[in-house]
Amino acid sequence: MAAQSKQALLPPWGYAIAGATGAVLANAAVYPLDIVKTRLQVQIKEKPSPESSSSTTPSPTPSTHYDGVLDAIRKITDAEGISGLYNGLNGALLGVASTNFAYFYWYSVVRTLYLTTSKTTTPPSTAIELSLGAIAGAVAQVFTIPVSVVTTRQQTQSGSEKKGLLDTGREVIDSEDGWSGLWRGLKASLVLVVNPAITYGAYQRLRDVLYPGKTSLKPREAFVLGALSKALATIATQPLIVAKVGLQSRPPPARNGKPFKSFIEVMAFILEREGVRGLFKGIGPQISKGLLVQGVLMMTKERMELLFVILFAYLRRLRDERLKKLAERMAQSAKGALPVVVK
């Protein structure tokens, strides 16, 4: 019942704005980690072979190889300056805002619909929460994945290749995929809706278990729940995340410019050259970013929702007062217009 009453406090767009605001602030704060994890995930470490070790012909490997988070930060700043850690920031924040707005809007819609049509008074089960999150995530991805594709390209550009959001978008469109290139990785993204589904499903379940009946969490409580739920989702879906990044970025030099056609092809390519560990590369910064982003996002979202509830209550009170005054004036005017009856 607590969840049901909480859902009625705000309209869907109120939850959407609160979620998008929290996501933008959180991602802006840890954006360098996003750059690092993306570059770690797209690099391919070739397995040494007798032929390559004896040959004098250099193999087509990237000019810069990163040996971890700190090494990546050092090499990026040395080559591109501090601004290199914020390459593609505008597009990333646009994508984060649009994706989270769409996700929270549809999640609020489908969850409210479920709660109002359900005959049970108990909170939704974990399976139901995951299903609701998956539906909302799928709808959000269809509309927002082009921004994600362009942002991934920007994040993997070197200092000499830097392009703006629109120029990078044109580069994607001018490739062999054409306009459909803006939806590269859509299938992987639709599969990856299980990530936010696991995240927010776990968040709701942990909230119901640890803080039953609470309609507003303290910042510390929201941060802990958000961080824990995101860590679980990241570990479960990391191979798919790596495959999606590989699909949306430029093909590695070993592919001779030939793009991947599916996330299964990306995973097979990585397994052949790096083994199973390659599917979990970049998981350190991925989890660190996820913990911070999800913690700050949920903490900010809870505060924003509370502010919206207060604002809406204030606006409703103003509206009621104005309607009351208007009714009184109309009553007085009607009373003064009545004819005087003389007996």
The gist of it:
It contains 13 helices and no strands.
Structure overview:
- The protein is an all-alpha fold and 343 residues long.
- Helices cover 70% and strands 0% of the residues.
- Helix 2 runs antiparallel to helix 6.
- The longest helix is centred in the C-terminal third of the chain and has 55 residues.
- It is elongated.
- It starts with a helix and ends in a 6-residue tail after the last helix.
- 39% of the residues are buried.
- The N terminus is likely disordered.
**What is the chain-wise order of helices and strands?**
HHHHHHHHHHHHH
Mean pLDDT: 76
Helical residues, percent: over 70%
* End-to-end distance: 61 Å
Low-confidence stretches: 1-8, 51-62
What is the percentage of strand-forming residues?
A: under 5%
Largest sheet, in brief, is: none
Shape: elongated
By DSSP, the count of extended strands is 0
Radius of gyration: 26 Å
Instruction: Assign the structural class, choosing from mainly alpha, mainly beta, alpha/beta, alpha+beta, or little secondary structure.
Output: mainly alpha
Count of helical regions: 13
